[in-house]
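Write out this protein's structure.
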Amino acid sequence: MLPLEGITVVSVEQAIAAPFASRHLADLGARVIKVERPEGGDFARNYDKTVKGLSSHFVWCNRSKESLTLDLKSAEGKDVLVRLLKKADVFLHNLAPGAMERLGFGDDFLKNNYPRLIACSISGYGKSGSYKNKKAYDLLIQCEAGLLSITGTDEVPSKAGIPVADISAGLYAFSGILSALIERNQTGKGKILDVSMLESLAEWMGYPMYYAGYSGEEPKRTGANHATIYPYGHFLCGDGKEVFFAIQNEREWGVFCAKLLQTPKLAEDSRFENNPSRFENQAQLKTIIEEAFSTLTSDEVIGRLEESKIANARMNTMKELFHHPQLAERNRWRNIDTPVGSVKMLIPPVTMEGFEPSMKAIPELGEHNEKILHELDDLNGNK
């Protein structure tokens, strides 16, 4: 039995945040009915055409779901949603601020009519406060949450290369829904959940936020290097490739000087004897390290780092990640059906003994209209 088998989720969703949350619920066995607009559906379907003609964003977030197209501005569409919610355990949505209330499905309506329903909304800034009606997209939340202020170089602030605001909100919605389901098992009562993208990403910004809030100093943008530890970052090797590694303590620093730099006495140099001094004199130290690495290939450097038990990594491209040997060796890939044929997708990152996640097909727009509407008619005795 799958962990969420028997749970029905109705999700009026688009883009990433809510689809990411509902896909995780589907992976655990929940039935997810994805409600889409009749004209074009979830606009993430058309972000790109790179996965055999499908959008990479849509493929990522929408396996194992049933697609139902509804015009929620029409009486007929609203009636179908009312009937769907009677059989649902979870109602998830991430429409524009206030949209669900204007459609007649606000919190009071849901609590009065569906007392066992867990209703979760994802928005940019939450349901209260002066920002509640402000439109929000991932980049804009990254700005408001200060992520760009600490990411990039001194000259150029940079956004994260993935939609971290959407992902964080989706994960907190997922964990919040799971918590509410556990509570409902004990109380029999549903719950209203309010997930804010800003607050989700602000939680992830905890260390630099508290650092600045209490020290009065803003963390510097340091590119791919660490803001307070050195050496911790990227270093050029003799073959023109860069290797990333991290020194976390004085024992590792001593080993690094002896095994990698072949200069054991450097560990006692007053310029580099502890992390604060190494960080202060990092320009000099970087020159010393890269001079030592200039006669070695990146593979040789990584080999010596591994032998010395010093944490290290290659800077993989996305293609290299797609073909990463560790993912293959741990059997993390499954073939998933789509409207254009099979595609390879990663299974969820939590491995549970005796449990294979549900990884069903990615739906065409409106593919399950007839099936779902027929079920609703049967429930109402209109066969």
